[in-house]
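Researcher: I need the complex structure. Ligand is 1-O-alpha-D-glucopyranosyl-D-fructose. Inputs:
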Amino acid sequence: MLCDKYREYLNWTVYQIYPRSFMDSNGDGVGDIRGILQKLDYLQALGVNALWLCPVYKSPNDDNGYDISDYRDIREDFGTLQDLDDLIAALHQRGMKLIMDLVPNHTSTAHPWFRESREDRDGPYGDYYYWFDEPPNDWQSVFRGSAWEFDPVRGQYYLHSFAVSQADLNWENPRVRREMADIVDFWTARGVDGFRVDVIDMISKDLQKTRGTFGPRLHEYIRGLFGRENVSKLFTVGESGVNDMEELIRHCAAERKELTTLFLFDHMGCGRADKFTPKPDSLKTLRDRLVYWQEAAEKHDLILTLFTDNHDQAPMISRIADDGEKRYESAAALAVMTYLLRGVPFIYQGQEIGTVSPRYDSIDDFDDVETFNAYREFLGTMTPEKALEKINFGSRDNARRPIAWDGSANFGFTTGTPWIPCHSRAGEINAEKDLKAEKSVYRFYQALLKLRASHEAFITGITRVLSSPEDDFFVFTRAAGNETWVAVINFANEQKIALPFECEAPVLANLGRDTIGGVYAPYECAVAKAGPMKSPMARSQDRPWANEDASLMKTP
Ligand code: TEU
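Model: Output:
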């Protein structure tokens, strides 16, 4: 049985904001909190009821805010603490929630803790980080190069799992754990409703192992942060490399008092061999990964996050669907196959207008520490043209271009000079244009979220998958009480898709079709209510995939 607390979170639909690139209110070229306030009507009309803000804390900005120098204050170009309080109040007034980003694994080397630590190894901050005379292992930074850096001031090496200026905190030190719990309490007292927790799998490490994740005290540390009574109402979602069911249960089962849910990244490999190397793929791969986790989570009464995009990934639409001629169809198909499953939808800014990966002719058009490190490395073995091609494919900046609001100068994002060049296709893909278009991704999202919110079947209902792995389409049902809904998404060229039961006319369809069965165009999708059922739908994991019902659906 799904516990009440988790049941409530299934009503949340989260919109992820990358504040630097969302909306600039004061013309300095950087998106800010007051810019977010200006867009609350747009967001609420879309149908989301929670926002996740990527870090807005004080930071030198080497990793766009994931290098924090003060966890209790706001970086000037984002605004002030007062602005954040205003945002919390405005959201709460609208019945919306705020999720902040918490970065517990590392601080900026500009953080006072690090400065004290490097200057006085015997002082109170001496053990806040991992310091060694010689690197105890050969770990590599996620952003490339050694994860150990020699600090001439202290005369020792410190660990940085990410950029050189992001020093890993030593969680073995109880004072570090206390500091982070105090930070959680500080924001909870200010009214935030939850946290997205950066690389939660890294906070406990075994320095003898090959990788710095899932250390022996991980669960103890997570419980120490979020298992406390005063923060028990928070929604907490951890960013984690969890890839097996047992581990997911250990993190998220309600009685564990750890996290509400996790971002699983199993499906992030879709359409690429590695971050910077494309691989031919289709929506089938995404479907199979989503289905696997959907069925597993349902079996254990856990709730999942439903997402395809975030600020670290090139848009999924450009990797495994059609970001050209069939961009609208693809965006809608991706939304139906992701957000009508059971879990908490996370929509990344720009997805709702069908934003795709941009392209640039020069490395100077990028502004990301990982991108620059990778580019330098590529130049060692390939031509600048080839290196730029890889960057254009995989750079995190693919997801970080200013939101294109309209067709005016800088696409309505800023009256100044944007901190990073605007999206190369912003003239074609912007909110104003999308909202006016006959084929509007925004309006499709709006209709989808409205449908989802209006029927219990989409919230808590059981999921049953009717298509087989070899099918070039995805058919699933969601059922609760007497109500069963069916969603059909076609991945291939034109093909006929038949259903084993009667349905009403579709209430959501990207190409306006009026029957659920029949010939589907590429990326066409539809959602309809099933007619009266002889017996209630079983959970799909109770049946093998290639079951007798599914075979009924084979294209004649
Ligand atoms: O990312 C952690 C992470 O391991 C990856 O998502 C990684 O950044 C990405 O694959 C590199 O291409 C989190 C944040 O989401 C990311 O923005 C930060 O840079 C990183 O932590 C460090 O805080």
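Model: Summary of the prediction. The longest strand covers residues 473-480.
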